[in-house]
């Protein structure tokens, strides 16, 4: 049995390595794959955009390649999926809006805070800029699933002790609570983690090859004995919640193991059986307008704010006013440029993640770094 699994793995590696050789040969020097040919079925104008494929010498540690690690569930590991620049761009977009995560399961499927999930997170709007669009097209290309079936990319941060308990990403029964019909999950790692933080499949999961966990050791107790992968920045893991016949795969239950040492940044993208909010894609230009206000910045976002505030609206219309008129409601303080402690006080009032300069530096993100004063001439 294990030898047949082993040969499956060998065949798979053969197919994958030759896939890239094939891609490199067919991509040639100046030829690219048109996105319109790779599931770019969003209604935006893609005439002028292409995905270029790497055309360098194959090197396991830097070239993109795919490895199947799970037989049950089907788990695929994408090596070197993102570039450093793309990863840092995603973190930069996400950091201002990172808030305590919720889980689906409230009334009418609303997000609720639950101790099963103790991280901070946010969703990056789809197709927000060319970098993000490039990443989303690559996801479509690598998963062979259309871009319009992807949810917004979520960005999550787990610190020591934080975890996401075992759960399924999709429910099968129409009447069951929980998210519906997420065919596959792609989890992109945005940081390395010193210890713990593995993505593990605790329910009867089977490796494609018994040598994989041996090569990957050591594992935290949470991951030991199960199919599991370690977070590594720029890499990603893909798994399916359903069998090809459309029934749910019980082995797709998974958990974000507790982070033991370090901080884990990761970005799950759920890919649905059907298009995800197609009406939103049709109105992309509308959706893109109006970035939410930065919670670290103290400002009013409507010309009438001071009038409304003096009419007592800060109390009577609290929810709206605290979003739109924080300054007039005196719910924040004006911060000098680069006064991060002040910005963090404003953020804390709204339940947002305090920004840590050292952590940002270790991720290669220069948010909130005061520029070096230019030398006197
Ligand atoms: C799409 O974009 C190209 C290049 O910018 C332009 O020439 C073309 O007219 C556009 N097509 C549509 C349908 O807007
Ligand atoms: C669907 O496929 C799975 C895995 O091969 C199998 O265990 C299950 O019995 C199948 N279900 C149906 C209804 O065919």
UniProtKB/TrEMBL annotation:
Example of a GO cellular component annotation carried by this entry: endoplasmic reticulum membrane
List, alphabetically, the PROSITE patterns matched. Answer: FE2OG_OXY, SHKT
Annotated Fe2OG dioxygenase domain residues: 149-273
- Per the record, what are the reactions this protein catalyses? L-prolyl-[collagen] + 2-oxoglutarate + O2 = trans-4-hydroxy-L-prolyl-[collagen] + succinate + CO2
Q: Where is the ShKT domain?
A: 298-332
Q: How does it sit in the membrane?
A: Single-pass type II membrane protein
What cofactor does this one take? L-ascorbate
Taxonomic source organism: Chlamydomonas eustigma
Q: Does the keyword Metal-binding apply?
A: yes
Q: Which keywords belong to this entry?
A: Dioxygenase, Iron, Membrane, Metal-binding, Oxidoreductase, Signal, Transmembrane, Transmembrane helix
Question: Do you know which InterPro entries this protein is assigned to?
Answer: Oxoglu/Fe-dep_dioxygenase_dom, P4HA-like, Pro_4_hyd_alph, Pro_4_hyd_alph_FE2OG_OXY, ShKT_dom
Q: Which Pfam families is this protein grouped with? A: 2OG-FeII_Oxy_3, ShK
Specify whether Transmembrane is a keyword of the entry.
yes
Compartments (UniProt record): Endoplasmic reticulum membrane
> Which residues, if any, are the signal sequence?
1-27
Gene3D superfamilies per the record? q2cbj1_9rhob like domain
Chief localisation class: endoplasmic reticulum
In which domain of life is the source organism classified?
Answer: Eukaryota
Q: Which GO terms describe its molecular function?
A: iron ion binding; L-ascorbic acid binding; procollagen-proline 4-dioxygenase activity
- The protein's name is Fe2OG dioxygenase domain-containing protein
């Amino acid at each position: 049995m294990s030898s047949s699994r082993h040969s499956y793995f060998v065949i798979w590696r053969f197919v994958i390595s030759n896939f890239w050789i094939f891609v490199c040969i067919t991509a040639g020097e100046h030829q690219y794959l048109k996105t319109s040919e790779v599931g770019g079925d969003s209604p935006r104008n893609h005439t002028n955009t292409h995905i270029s494929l790497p055309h360098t010498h194959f090197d396991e540690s830097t070239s993109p390649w795919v490895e199947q690690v799970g037989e049950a569930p089907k788990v695929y590991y994408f090596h070197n999926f993102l570039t450093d620049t793309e990863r840092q761009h995603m973190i930069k977009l996400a950091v201002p809006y990172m808030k305590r995560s919720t889980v689906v399961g409230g009334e009418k499927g609303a997000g609720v805070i639950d101790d099963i999930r103790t991280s901070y997170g946010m969703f990056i709007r789809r197709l927000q800029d060319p970098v993000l669009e490039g990443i989303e097209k690559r996801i479509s290309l690598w998963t062979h699933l259309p871009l319009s079936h992807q949810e917004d990319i979520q960005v999550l941060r787990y610190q020591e002790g934080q975890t996401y308990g075992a759960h399924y990403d999709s429910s099968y029964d129409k009447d069951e609570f929980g998210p519906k019909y997420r065919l596959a999950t792609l989890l992109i790692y945005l940081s390395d983690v010193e210890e713990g933080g593995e993505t593990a499949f605790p329910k009867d999961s089977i490796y494609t090859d018994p040598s994989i966990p041996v090569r990957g050791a050591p594992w935290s107790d949470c991951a030991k004995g199960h199919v599991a992968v370690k977070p590594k920045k720029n890499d990603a893991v893909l798994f399916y919640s359903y069998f090809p016949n459309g029934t749910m795969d019980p082995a797709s239950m998974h958990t974000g193991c507790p982070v033991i040492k370090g901080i884990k940044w990761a970005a799950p993208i759920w890919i649905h059986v059907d298009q995800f909010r197609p009406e939103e894609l049709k109105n992309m230009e509308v959706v893109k307008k109006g970035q939410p206000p930065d919670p670290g910045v103290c400002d009013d976002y409507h010309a009438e704010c001071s009038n409304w505030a003096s009419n007592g609206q800060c109390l009577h219309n609290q929810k709206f006013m605290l979003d739109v008129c924080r300054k007039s409601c005196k719910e924040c303080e004006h911060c000098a440029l680069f006064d991060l402690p002040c910005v963090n006080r404003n953020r804390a009032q709204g339940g947002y993640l305090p920004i840590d300069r050292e952590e940002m530096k270790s991720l290669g993100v220069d948010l909130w770094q005061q520029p070096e004063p230019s030398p006197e001439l």
